[in-house]
Amino acid sequence: MTIDELRARAGERKQTCAQIKKMIVSRLDLPIEPEWISDDQPLFGRGLELDSLDVLELYVAIEAEFGVALYDSDMSVFGSVSRLADSVNPALRTAQAAVA
Amino acid sequence: MESALTPVHPEGTVYGQVLEASVPLRYTTTEAEYEAIRGRAAVLDLGGSRLVQVRGSSAGDFLQRVLARDVEYLTSERSTTSLILDETGAIVDQVVVWGREDGAILESSCGAGTRLIEYLRSQNADEVEIVDRSDELTVIAVEGPYSWGVIGRLIDSELAALPLDSVVDTQWDGADILFGRTGSSGEYGYKVVAAHETAKKLWTQACEHAVPAGQDVLELAMLEVRQPVVRHEAPAGTGVLEVGAGWLVDITKESFVGRDAVLAAFAEQSGPRTIGFRGGDAVPAPGTRVLAAGQDIGEVVHAVYSVGLGAALGLARVESDLAAAGLDLTAGDAEIETLTSPYVSPKSWSIPIV
């Protein structure tokens, strides 16, 4: 890949991540700017401190926003915004994510 | 600084220096200890961390000012993990804050305790009492997908099911201990703060139920779930956003040391960012240049061999528009691929506490 192709690929992931962050902040009514959430920060436990009720809310939101049903997914899908991006935009999926 | 538990460590323990602390790096092999922390239960001597008690009538105000996370409502039954920043927004340390009725106990990162105490004292306009309790207290952790079983057998099964970041003052073997559900590997985790002699007994008994694991495996497990290891990721002057540790900062909090600098950096949205990578036969050294299509875009910050991935795993600090997963880059002579976090999914995420 050329540097421009790499930048474009990175840009596509960042765009999907930005869309996910906006959705999370909006649907869960978080008092922060979406950009404050980093692509790699944990979403549960100490990260964004989401709980199981938040997950249910996100299932519905993801299906509405991306047309992807994650109801039977294992929790690692929510490991980070970037990991979630692999699920809602399969074009981004890395070999690592496929194995996980 | 040497751990109070050194006399009861197994024969053959390999020690190493982490900043000011001499700590157990390995007790047996990295592979065996990794299997314990990711597959069963590991017991960890965290005696390289200092325990700093902050107390007094102004302790609450002082802590709220120096900690980047909101501790206004932190009771003696809760803990939290927070960054401490200087005025420029650079990371001083990452601490576990154990809420206490008259303030808090701050657990420093490994080997960084003296620096933390000096910093706290430099900020002490409130005339709070800042006491290093490490000469009398130490910390033991139990982490792993079945660590709750160890806690049940060793202390109390009810404590094993506490919500994350809960803290309980209780007793073990007739002695007062501070028990918390907290950890850093992404697996179920618990910590006990106890007097040295009590801790020695607890450690010895814990080793009958769990595998002792050293600093090497703990830091690997932290890296795999993107839990910052400050000494590797934040050399002097490194900011929160560069490290990607904004989640350890409550930016909605009205005021804390470093807030203005963090907000300014956030508004600029410039500078390098950190991304995880895997690949290469050898572990690249910090400072190894990272290239994208032959162009220099940054450097390796920290890398180790990941038992879980069976490959080198590391963090690189690169131009922000290329700090994304799924890119094929090079680090030195090695081909690497950038990753989504967590790099290894904790087994605890799919195992209930029973």
Automatic annotation (TrEMBL), chain A:
It comes from the Bacteria. Residues 14-92 form the Carrier domain. Gene3D superfamilies: ACP-like (1.10.1200.10). InterPro entries: ACP-like_sf, PP-bd_ACP. This is Acyl carrier protein.
Automatic annotation (TrEMBL), chain B:
GO terms for molecular function: aminomethyltransferase activity. It is an enzyme of class 2 (transferase). Residues 11-253 form the GCVT N-terminal domain. Keywords: Transferase. It comes from the Bacteria. Residues 277-330 form the Aminomethyltransferase C-terminal domain. Its EC number is 2.1.2.10. Signal peptide: none annotated. Coiled coil: none annotated. GO terms for cellular component: cytosol. This is Glycine cleavage system T protein (Aminomethyltransferase). It comes from Actinoalloteichus fjordicus.
